[in-house]
Design brief:
Length: 242
């Protein structure tokens, strides 16, 4: 069975929106593991828009499955990764103005930077995944750079509205997974996967693990809403006023 790594960034987004100390992504990670998550993913961004350093350090102490750190290949992040020592680092591109990671890391253009980051992380015995587009050139380059695995960007498939574009994007994703698997790279897949798009992956045996965040956090808010309102109603009832 393919694994599921749960990204809890957007629990932190909700917290940061109010500058509150809840909801806590560390607590959400515990619950995600209780639900069967095979790994917990956080993206520590340079601008700290959601996950904070405190979250990462606490998750290192509390995650029982495996901790996956998504990060840009910057000196700052490499230093933090070496200190925290997550089970896996996924190198991603990062632009300050983007809402979320927009495309895969171009490991051909940025070969030197990526090679340097992989060397530093391997020296610390941290496995490295590269988040790349479903493109054979990128996958072969990931192999040449000694990455341990790749995460294939599924955003183009998940976000496509035109059926023809969706079909092509999915075929490219499957082809990329097969190529990576043939090259003995671990194969993860993620970005934009929801409760509908996941169904397309039936039978794609090359995928080892899915990395999913936004749709799970969004669904948690929906399936938890009724209980949350009941709890507040109960507290108001106990006030004995009105
Ligand atoms: N994988 C990578 C590399 C990502 O950057 C993200 C988004 O943080 C995800 C997976 C999860 O994407 P989503 O939140 O759309 O499920």
């Amino acid at each position: 069975m393919a694994g599921l790594a749960v990204n809890v960034d957007h629990i932190a987004t909700l917290r940061q929106a109010r500058g509150a100390d809840y909801p806590d992504p560390v607590a959400a990670a515990v619950l995600a593991e209780l639900g069967g998550a095979d790994g917990i993913v956080v993206h520590l961004r340079g601008d700290r828009r959601h996950i904070q350093d405190r979250d990462l350090y606490l998750l290192k102490k509390t995650v029982l499955s495996k901790l996956i750190l998504e990060m840009a290949a910057t000196d700052e992040m490499l230093s933090i990764a070496g200190d925290v020592r997550p089970d896996l680092v996924t190198l991603v591109p990062e632009k300050r103005e983007e809402v979320t990671t927009e495309g895969g890391l171009d490991v051909v253009t940025h070969a030197d930077t990526v090679a340097n980051a992989i060397e530093i992380l391997h020296r610390e015995a941290i496995a490295v995944s590269l988040f790349i587009d479903a493109d054979a050139k990128q996958i072969h380059q990931a192999r040449a750079l000694s990455a341990d695995m790749v995460e294939i960007h599924t955003g183009r498939f998940c976000d496509a509205e035109a059926p023809a574009e969706k079909t092509t994007a999915f075929a490219d994703t499957v082809e990329a997974a097969k190529t990576a698997s043939e090259l003995d790279l671990g194969v993860n897949a993620g970005h934009g996967i929801c409760y509908n798009t996941i169904k397309a992956f039936k039978g794609v045996a090359e995928i080892d693990e899915f990395s999913i965040g936004h749709s799970i956090v969004a669904r948690a808010a929906m399936v938890g809403m009724e209980k949350a309102v009941r709890e507040m109603r109960e507290l108001i009832k106990e006030l004995g006023i009105g």
